């Protein structure tokens, strides 16, 4: 990309944040042909203007309430990688629950390329991606439709989950705290994910790098209970150490000698 003047670069970063998703320092430095230190200074300025919150390795918008179509365009390549790795780690011959979210949709797209699966979800778009009734079996929870998140919400969702035991649950994370674990933005999402945790035998949590350090008021899963988390790059040092000490298996991509992507874990 042609090197932009500082003011234009700041505006471009602000525009990207309006999609409702986070940005990474390294990716922005490469995109705008500047140093990572330049991007760090840009983020400080934008944070002073109230446009973002800085986190480890990047920044997130002050509000991540952008409609789902906008979020789908943000970090799409990274989410596709997460989706592929999560699908590889899922048990396909059991009953799977997939939560809503742009990263969850990427997991569904990856699952669609493999053998038939049986899925319950609160995200209608996942049923469409999995071609429900043609190749895969998909059950929707029911509930009130939330356009901003492309999700079914409410007590009906919780009731549907409480009536089942899932072999695998694929769960998105709003934020990852290095001390407390997975955090959420609302009491309802805390209840939703805690219940899903209780009603599943195995859980795979998915989170792109911008979620590490993202703040949330409600803890859904403690650090030691995470089990497996799939992300798109190695977590920052404070998170990597905490996750390893808590016995969490962290899965992320790593390029081999031929520049192809392969799965790497932290050895848990």
TrEMBL record:
<dbReference type="InterPro" id="IPR018356">
    <property type="entry name" value="Tscrpt_reg_HTH_DeoR_CS"/>
</dbReference>
<keyword id="KW-0805">Transcription regulation</keyword>
<keyword id="KW-0614">Plasmid</keyword>
<keyword id="KW-0804">Transcription</keyword>
<protein>
    <submittedName>
        <fullName>DeoR family transcriptional regulator</fullName>
    </submittedName>
</protein>
<dbReference type="InterPro" id="IPR050313">
    <property type="entry name" value="Carb_Metab_HTH_regulators"/>
</dbReference>
<dbReference type="InterPro" id="IPR014036">
    <property type="entry name" value="DeoR-like_C"/>
</dbReference>
<dbReference type="InterPro" id="IPR037171">
    <property type="entry name" value="NagB/RpiA_transferase-like"/>
</dbReference>
<keyword id="KW-0238">DNA-binding</keyword>
<dbReference type="GO" id="GO:0003677">
    <property type="term" value="F:DNA binding"/>
</dbReference>
<keyword id="KW-0678">Repressor</keyword>
<feature type="domain" description="HTH deoR-type">
    <location>
        <begin position="6"/>
        <end position="61"/>
    </location>
</feature>
<dbReference type="InterPro" id="IPR036388">
    <property type="entry name" value="WH-like_DNA-bd_sf"/>
</dbReference>
<dbReference type="Pfam" id="PF00455">
    <property type="entry name" value="DeoRC"/>
</dbReference>
<dbReference type="Pfam" id="PF08220">
    <property type="entry name" value="HTH_DeoR"/>
</dbReference>
<dbReference type="InterPro" id="IPR001034">
    <property type="entry name" value="DeoR_HTH"/>
</dbReference>
<dbReference type="InterPro" id="IPR036390">
    <property type="entry name" value="WH_DNA-bd_sf"/>
</dbReference>
<dbReference type="GO" id="GO:0003700">
    <property type="term" value="F:DNA-binding transcription factor activity"/>
</dbReference>
């Amino acid at each position: 990309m042609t090197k932009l003047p500082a003011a234009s670069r700041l505006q471009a970063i602000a525009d990207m944040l309006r999609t409702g998703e986070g940005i990474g320092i390294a990716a922005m430095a490469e995109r705008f042909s500047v140093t990572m230190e330049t991007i760090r200074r840009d983020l400080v300025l934008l944070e002073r203007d109230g446009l973002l919150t800085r986190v480890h390795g990047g920044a997130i918008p002050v509000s991540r309430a952008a409609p789902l179509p906008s979020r789908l365009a943000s970090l799409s390549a990274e989410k596709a990688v997460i989706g592929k790795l999560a699908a590889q780690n899922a048990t396909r011959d059991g009953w799977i629950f997939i939560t809503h979210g742009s990263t969850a949709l990427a997991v569904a797209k990856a699952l669609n390329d493999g053998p038939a699966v049986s899925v319950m979800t609160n995200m209608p778009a996942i049923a469409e991606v999995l071609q429900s009734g043609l190749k895969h079996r998909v059950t929707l929870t029911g509930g009130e439709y939330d356009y901003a998140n492309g999700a079914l919400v409410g007590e009906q969702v919780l009731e549907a989950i409480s009536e089942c035991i899932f072999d695998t649950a694929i769960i998105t994370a709003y934020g990852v705290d290095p001390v407390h674990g997975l955090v959420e933005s609302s009491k309802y999402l805390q209840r939703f994910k805690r219940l899903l945790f209780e009603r599943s035998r195995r859980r795979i949590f998915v989170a792109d790098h911008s979620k590490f350090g993202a703040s949330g008021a409600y803890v859904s899963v403690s650090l030691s209970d995470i089990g497996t988390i799939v992300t798109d790059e190695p977590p920052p040092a404070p998170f990597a150490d905490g996750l390893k000490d808590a016995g969490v298996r962290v899965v992320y991509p790593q390029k081999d000698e031929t520049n192809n992507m392969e799965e790497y874990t932290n050895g848990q």
